[in-house]
Amino acid sequence: MDCQRENVECFLSSLSEEDKFQLFNDLLAVNEVYQMNKDTSFYTFRKLKRASQRHCECRKRTIQFKNKKNDEIIIHQIHEQHIFKNKYRFQVFYNMEEQNFSFIEFLLETLREERLSQFINQRVVLA
Question: Does residue 80 contact residue 57 with C-beta atoms inside 8 Å?
Answer without folding.
Answer: yes
